[in-house]
């Protein structure tokens, strides 16, 4: 049975380069690169602040898009229900850390320590998704549905990014 699941995963990846799971994996790589840039940047510098803000916005939009599109579908299925619920809780922790980091200056040891906690939580979440959740999801979601979900996810993610941009513009206008 495990061999059959691996064959399905390989086929769905090959046939479905624009499916939701592949888009999410690409975004995971982008988030990892941004986390590295924040880590390497000068404390309190404009580059750190701008890079962190880009990371925060993209992370929050990514999480919200998953919560809107992927997880509701997978919560309905027996083989992925518990994983989807756990992933939503991990999202909540990441959202709290992002909010706390946004409220502080991007300098100092305390900010960086909290950023490391965020990084560890994101890396743990990504590892679980890519090693456990996505392979299982490929076995329960038809290729066509994965493509449809990718389009819905992109719309949801972009909507969340637009909301964040509007909120940021309003707060800067005060």
Fold topology:
Blueprint: H1 2-15, H2 20-40, H3 46-75, H4 81-102, H5 109-140, H6 143-172
Walkthrough of the structure:
- This protein is mainly α and 174 residues long.
- It has one domain: Four Helix Bundle (Hemerythrin (Met), subunit A) (Up-down Bundle), CATH 1.20.120.
- The protein has six helices and no strands.
- Helix 1 crosses helix 5 (109-140), helix 3 (46-75) packs antiparallel against helix 4 and helix 4 (81-102) runs antiparallel to helix 5 (109-140).
- Residues 10-15 have low confidence and may be disordered.
What's the short version?
The chain is mainly α.
Low-confidence stretches: 10-15
Oligomer: single chain
Rg measurement, Å: 17 Å
CATH second-level architecture: Up-down Bundle
Which descriptors apply to this entry?
174 residues; mainly alpha; Four Helix Bundle (Hemerythrin (Met), subunit A); 86% helix
């Amino acid at each position: 049975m495990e061999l059959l699941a691996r064959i399905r995963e390989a086929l769905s990846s090959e046939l479905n380069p624009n499916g939701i799971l592949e888009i999410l994996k690409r975004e995971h790589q982008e988030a990892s690169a941004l986390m590295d840039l924040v880590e390497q940047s000068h404390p309190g510098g404009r580059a750190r602040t701008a890079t962190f803000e880009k990371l925060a916005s993209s992370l929050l939009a990514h999480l919200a898009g998953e919560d809107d599109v992927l997880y509701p579908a997978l919560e309905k299925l027996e083989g992925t229900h518990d994983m989807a619920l756990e992933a939503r809780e991990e999202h909540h922790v990441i959202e709290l850390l992002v909010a706390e980091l946004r409220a502080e200056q991007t300098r100092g040891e305390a900010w960086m320590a909290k950023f490391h906690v965020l990084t560890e939580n994101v890396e743990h979440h990504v590892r679980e998704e890519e090693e456990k959740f996505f392979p299982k999801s490929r076995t329960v979601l038809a290729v066509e549905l994965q493509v449809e979900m990718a389009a819905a996810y992109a719309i949801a993610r972009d909507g969340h990014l637009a909301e964040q941009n509007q909120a940021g513009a309003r707060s800067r206008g005060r």
